[in-house]
What we know:
By secondary structure, this protein is an alpha+beta fold. It folds into two domains: 2-51; 56-180, Jelly Rolls. It contains two helices and eleven strands, in the order H-H-E-E-E-E-E-E-E-E-E-E-E. It has a five-stranded antiparallel sheet with strand order 3-1-11-5-8, with no helix packed on it. A hairpin with a 2-residue loop joins strand 6 and strand 7 (126-133).
Amino acid sequence: xxxxxxxxxxxxxxxxxxxxxxxxxxxxxxxxxxxxxxxxxxxxxxxxxxxxxxxxxxxxxxxxxxxxxxxxxxxxxxxxxxxxxxxxxxxxxxxxxxxxxxxxxxxxxxxxxxxxxxxxxxxxxxxxxxxxxxxxxxxxxxxxxxxxxxxxxxxxxxxxxxxxxxxxxxxxxxxxxxxxxxxxxxxxxxxx
Length: 192
């Protein structure tokens, strides 16, 4: 909230300076009107922030290395929860179900301990992002923002490759709500 106030103060200052440079002077009444408008905008923003639910999760594997007992095309189940605000991710099914409509950000980190592997982040059966991880000792990552309607699901699928990933915090799936829908946002396209 402090940075918002600083931004609003800076904007207010720029307006006053602009008027002073142009030779116009700001009356006390105009300053009071601007202060009142700033306070109103701060109140509206705070009310919107208070209505935004906290939805976030981060899941990994309970074993290291984590054997993937999945055939190609099956869901990868990250079974160890590090964070699950809003309980939208199920460590039993590996599915994230959106509790509210809005814009979400998902991240997948994978570190294979065997051969090359490909993974996809999937929304309702359609791939929205993918990553190919090679057995080179480094973690591969993908991050994507996507609009979800309430109750739509997102999960990770193993497409092909080896049978073992490094577990614990080395291979993780995470996501969080960036913002809820308002009257101005109805896109269902992938942002990143």
